[in-house]
């Protein structure tokens, strides 16, 4: 019985030792220069898969033919990207005020929109020569009472 116990104990001690010696090695990543990699792997020529190449060529040709054979639906006649703006009705304005509004609008639509702004400010004595004084806040405005009365007569709101 003692012998059997001794063999059992030795077996239990030896068994884990035998298993510990047989651990598998895991793959590792090794940093190599290109020349070292070529030495280890060797030269591998490029191998092109001909069936994949034919399938890709066929798909490209089909896409090109689809683009070339595209047909526009005949039901679409005309597309308006920007609607035509309605012309303003200035018949209720006096002829002088109509000319003034057209001069301001023409100035604003020109290549230099400040022309329209200075046309508006001309009534208040502001032009290109004294605009620098306005930036510093030193310009005085002298309002013409006739202009104010004309604006009131044409239903302009003055505050």
Automatic annotation (TrEMBL):
Species in which this protein is naturally found: Acinetobacter silvestris
Signal sequence coordinates: 1-20
Keywords: Signal
Protein name: Peptide signal protein
């Amino acid at each position: 019985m003692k012998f059997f116990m001794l063999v059992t104990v030795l077996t239990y001690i030896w068994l884990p030792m035998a298993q510990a010696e047989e651990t598998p090695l895991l793959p590792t990543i090794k940093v190599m220069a290109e020349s070292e990699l070529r030495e280890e792997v060797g030269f591998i020529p490029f191998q092109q898969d001909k069936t994949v190449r034919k399938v890709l060529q066929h798909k490209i040709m089909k896409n090109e033919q689809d683009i070339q054979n595209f047909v526009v639906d005949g039901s679409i006649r005309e597309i308006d990207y920007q609607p035509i703006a309605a012309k303003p009705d200035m018949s209720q304005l006096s002829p002088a005020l109509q000319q003034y509004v057209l001069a301001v609008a023409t100035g604003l639509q020109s290549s230099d929109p400040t022309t329209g702004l200075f046309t508006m400010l001309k009534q208040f004595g502001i032009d290109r020569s004294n605009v620098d004084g306005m930036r510093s806040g030193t310009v005085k405005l002298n309002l013409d009472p006739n202009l104010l009365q004309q604006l009131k007569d044409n239903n302009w709101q003055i505050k």
